[in-house]
């Protein structure tokens, strides 16, 4: 995980997931989590990027 991905995962989680994994189901799940509740979106982004 690069520094840019870490910063994006904190401020724009769906963008970080899209950069790391592409427009897969992980991106869409993260987008929904971020829209509904911001913190779960951040946690999911870190989970997806470190996996």
From TrEMBL:
Subcellular location: Membrane
Xref: InterPro entries: PMP3
Pfam families: Pmp3
Main subcellular location of this protein, as a coarse class: membrane
Assigned GO CC terms: membrane
Keywords annotated in UniProt: Membrane, Transmembrane, Transmembrane helix
Membership in a protein family: Belongs to the UPF0057 (PMP3) family.
Protein name, per record: YqaE/Pmp3 family membrane protein
